[in-house]
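Can anyone check this?
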Amino acid sequence: MRARSRRIFAGIQDPVDAVVLMNGGGEMKDLTFRYVSGVTRGGYEGCAAVLRLDHRPTLLISRLEEESAHTAPDCDVVAFASKAAYAEALKEILGQPKRIGVNPPGITLAKSRWIEELFPDAELVDVSDPIADARLVKDADEIEKVRRACKLTSDIAEAIPGMLRAGMTEKELSASIAEAIQRRGGQVAFDTIVCFGVGGAEPHYSPGDVKLEAGHLILIDFGSRLDDYNSDITRMYVFGSATDRHRAMYRVVRDAQEKAVDATRAGASGREIHQLTTDLIDATEFKGRFIHGTGHSIGLEVHDGPGLGAASDLTLAPGMIMTVEPGVYVPGEGGVRIEDTVLVTENGPEILTPATKDLVEVPA
């Protein structure tokens, strides 16, 4: 984990004495805490990770999390039993710092002010960009974790035809997918999108009580999380026989998706990949019906940094993991989206979600 800390410091232009990553409560946690610690168990509410150049990361942990924290590789662990003890431990570790790096997207205003109160002579410095840059390029351990999450997700995508039955609701299928993920040891990475029929025209549709009928075009966008790392996939099915219109929409999206995946290479620009995808779709009868970015980085978070879009200034490098997910959305008819999780390698793109991308027709 010291190597990950060094990656962060390498990107900080004006030196800081330390970087303090401090979790809040509930869902307000900085996942960079897990990135630099490697912990996979425990909640770590209100806990902190202190990074110093040429030191092992130090985890400041409540007694509640002490046993779990000792599983962290290459980290020092300091447990506290009260807020006062927490403050004293932080002062002892940092001494009299002049500049403390913090990660604004991951820290609450209250926690920032607490640090300022503890160290009134120190300047708090925004180091969110070096943190994001460090996390964007995955190391071998991270790639393996994403790979395993993608394998789980792909296996379930292949099993979805066997879950479909006439009269089931979108909510029921979403629940079945969640159960399948959990049976295989994972967690649901985000709210599963299940669309039967016209609902597919909404890219971020929420599954409801629509019942599955013969002729429905089915869009399913879901992901799983294993050891804190995420996968993301979208596949298409038809309950019964696909219409000519279904096939036309599908051909356009699949062609655009395959070309966008092939363009997802080291040195490529996120903006250029998105423009390529947009131009391909706009050259068809579905001009203007691709209405979102082509993809996003994925890792500890489902949206784990910059992506492939019209305003992207990202240049791809080996070790980055991106989704590639063009779509076509026609109000009143439905939509088609095809998505893979893709690793950028020295030798080109590697699809980590190999489930078939055929338009699967399931007997009604």
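Reply from J.R.: I decoded it. The chain has two domains: 2-135, 140-362.
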